[in-house]
Write a structure and sequence with these properties.
alpha+beta, 4 helices, 3 strands
């Protein structure tokens, strides 16, 4: 999902698109780890290929560090070709977090969709 031109909020802060993106990024990352362990650049590539969501290394690695620190992902170094890579996989706690976030996201999107439909009715 490519973000349109940046639009500042009323107080000159983040645009609402940036706030939504930031709020959904943790969910997107956890979803990318549901089937297999991935290293950071692989997560970035997966998100872009599956969704057109562009995430930079400067964004992903602090999130991965926090998810690891909070016990939602397990990070482990693996020899992978020329150099070792840190792979991330969901922990049982991470799977529970993902299930809760997915449910909340689905409910929220449904609620907003209903509001959009009601606003568009004549």
């Amino acid at each position: 999902m490519r973000t349109p031109a940046r639009t500042a909020g009323p107080a000159g802060g983040e645009s609402w698109q940036e706030q939504i993106r930031r709020g959904g990024l943790e969910l997107a990352i956890l979803l990318s780890l549901t089937r297999e362990a991935r290293y950071g650049l692989d997560i970035i590539r997966h998100l872009e290929a599956a969704t057109d969501l562009v995430v930079t290394e400067g964004t992903i690695y602090p999130i991965m560090a926090r998810l690891s620190r909070d016990g939602f992902v397990l990070a482990e170094w693996r020899e992978d070709g020329v150099h070792p890579r840190k792979y991330y996989r969901l922990t049982p706690r991470g799977r529970a977090r993902l299930a809760g976030m997915t449910g909340m996201w689905t409910t929220f999107v449904s609620q907003i969709d209903r509001l959009i439909t009601a606003a568009e009715e004549k």
